[in-house]
From TrEMBL:
This is Uncharacterized NAD(FAD)-dependent dehydrogenase. It comes from the Bacteria. Pfam families: Pyr_redox_2. One of its GO terms (molecular function) is oxidoreductase activity. SUPFAM superfamilies: FAD/NAD(P)-binding domain (SSF51905). InterPro entries: FAD/NAD-bd_sf (IPR036188), FAD/NAD-binding_dom (IPR023753), SQRD (IPR052541). Residues 4-144 form the FAD/NAD(P)-binding domain. The lineage of its organism: Bacteria, Pseudomonadati, Pseudomonadota, Alphaproteobacteria, Rhodospirillales. Coiled coil: none annotated. It comes from Paramagnetospirillum magneticum (strain ATCC 700264 / AMB-1) (Magnetospirillum magneticum).
Amino acid sequence: MSKTILIVGGGLAGTIVANGICRQMGAELRSGALNITMLGTSETHMYQPGLLYIPFGRMREAELFRDQRKVLDKRVNFFVDPAKNIDVEKNQVTTEAGRTFKYDYLVLATGSRIMPQNVPGMSEGAHWFYDLDGARKLRKALNEFQGGKIIVNVNAPHKCPVAPLEVVFMLHDFLKAKGLWDKTELTYTYPIGRLHALEPVAHWAKPEFERLGIKSETFFNTESVDPEKKTITSMEGSELPYDLLITVPPHQGAQVIDDSGLGKGGWVPTNTKTLHRDGSTNVFVVGDTTNIPISKAGSTAHFEADVTIDNLVSLCQEGTFAREYDGKVFCFVETGLGSGTYVWFNYTTPPNPGPPSQMIHWFKLAYNRLYWLSARGLL
């Protein structure tokens, strides 16, 4: 009997899963024993980490986009028809267009989205780089900036956990190159009592901030932004004035997850090792959609996708589970416009950032170009 794998979400994780299964199960696809369907929200696939480079003029917008159908294996049935309801009891997904898709195995890869509107005044008073429109506006603001107070404000939860540190270091080099660093006061705020959620990363960042003259305020949980007064206020009672506010907005998962009763805030309760949705044996969760307390990053999505591919192929071909996810994450960290470091860790090994170097920065830039091979499952 033919089996159907349904993938909800067309970002990195879902795309890698689809392409990886096609690569390993060509015989089943040719015979009709397997069908792979993806439900996406857009005709285009975006390289989201590249948005960080747009405000600094280090990537062109066109480099961020590809036609999703060209990124996907041709054997994947791809529909731009977002899921409206996911019924894990009936093994079916209903779309916004009213179509119903049955499945034997479901992969939830619905991702995350920025929610600046959740903080009063943030949409009107802040800039960000987590979507294309925001990155464009920030690019314009940086080009017009002539000195003053810049605040980089971090809210939780958010994806790409090292991006707030990266933008701070890149801002330093950008302003220094323009001769504006001596006219600028740069302050970084973070919601807990250190500079990063990962303690070793926080310990590494603190002396780097001190060396560069970057100020910081921890235990800063954003309450509101006043675009008229140009101030940002924390729940702890602190009020900071700014000339330019760059924020990492709070994130939520997809609305369909909440509407379908699969989780809160768009995050699906997920087994940390099997990547099953809690309570299901035929529903896998990958990428930002999980509630696993590790980084919501591209590498996380990639490693989870690889494990999910192996398990789905093994279940379809052999009726057994293949392997577990060990929590592996690998992130390049830009430490300026010409240097970088990296962190890797898993459930048992903490991160340990090494000394920044130009070579690691070039590795990061090389990966920016190789991303499309990664999405196709070739890297």
